[in-house]
Amino acid sequence: MELIAEKREKLGKASKSLKKKGLMPAVIFGKALESLSITVPQVEVEKAYNAGGETTLIDIKIGNQTEKVLFKEVQEDPLSGKIIHVGFYKPNLKELTEAQVPVEIIGEENNEFLKTGGAIVLILANEIAVEALPTDLPHAFEIDVSDMQIGDVVTAGQLKYDTSKVSLVDLEAGDMVIKLDKIEEQVEEEAPVSEEEALEKIEATEETTAEEGEEDEEGKEKKEKKEDK
């Protein structure tokens, strides 16, 4: 995966004109490395990020120079969601680096409980911190839920990755990553009634009962008069 970039000489307000040209500002940084401001095609950046995320090395070519970098600091427009600035991190390819690897759920369309709406996948870890050489970072942790039953869980120890090259930073083998949980039917609870509302309800009931009693008496009197005749 390669991006063609150019060095950016003018900073600040000048970067606003880049958008009209389909370009966006970015910077390359790393340990003991002087930051380098560049411009890159916005569309190509979107494609590279969507394809590789933050754990796939990409090549940035600047003239005759090529740098192997990782997406590190991605800023998106809050309205459009498009990437507007990127910080590319240049790691030491011979040193272990830490990265957040996303958890991706697959096979939902094949699970009978999910298809009928009787269950839900509870994701307890959307991303998992790992440590590995930059070239060994996994793209994602894929979990297939096709055959999972309600109550089944997947732990960190069940994830598929090369344990000889990648180590988990924060999770132990027994820590839960996802669970297939049953969707319970929600019972609507009656809203609590205040003392004032309760009194009004009682008074209204008493008035209704009294009116019904009066009507009964009137009906009884009419019947008696009719019988007397």
TrEMBL record:
Residues annotated as domain Large ribosomal subunit protein bL25 L25: 4-88
Biological process terms in GO annotation: translation
GO MF, any single term: structural constituent of ribosome
Compositionally biased residues, Acidic residues: 186-198, 205-218
InterPro entries: Rbsml_bL25/Gln-tRNA_synth_N, Ribosomal_bL25/Gln-tRNA_synth, Ribosomal_bL25_b-dom, Ribosomal_bL25_C, Ribosomal_bL25_long, Ribosomal_L25_dom, Ribosomal_uL5_bac-type
Keywords on record: Ribonucleoprotein, Ribosomal protein, RNA-binding, rRNA-binding
GO cellular component terms given for this protein: cytosolic large ribosomal subunit
Gene3D superfamilies: Ribosomal protein L25, beta domain, Ribosomal Protein L25, Chain P
CDD domains in UniProt: Ribosomal_L25_TL5_CTC (cd00495)
UniProt-listed Pfam families: Ribosomal_L25p (PF01386), Ribosomal_TL5_C (PF14693)
Region described as Disordered: spans on this chain: 186-229
SUPFAM superfamilies: Ribosomal protein L25-like (SSF50715)
Domain Large ribosomal subunit protein bL25 beta, first and last residues per copy: 98-171
Keyword Ribonucleoprotein carried by entry: yes
The keyword Ribonucleoprotein appears for this protein: yes
Record field: compositional bias (Basic and acidic residues): 219-229
Alphabetical list of NCBIfam families matching this protein: bL25_bact_ctc
Family: Belongs to the bacterial ribosomal protein bL25 family. CTC subfamily.
Subunit structure: Part of the 50S ribosomal subunit; part of the 5S rRNA/L5/L18/L25 subcomplex. Contacts the 5S rRNA. Binds to the 5S rRNA independently of L5 and L18.
Function as written in the Swiss-Prot or TrEMBL entry: This is one of the proteins that binds to the 5S RNA in the ribosome where it forms part of the central protuberance.
Name of the molecule in the record: Large ribosomal subunit protein bL25
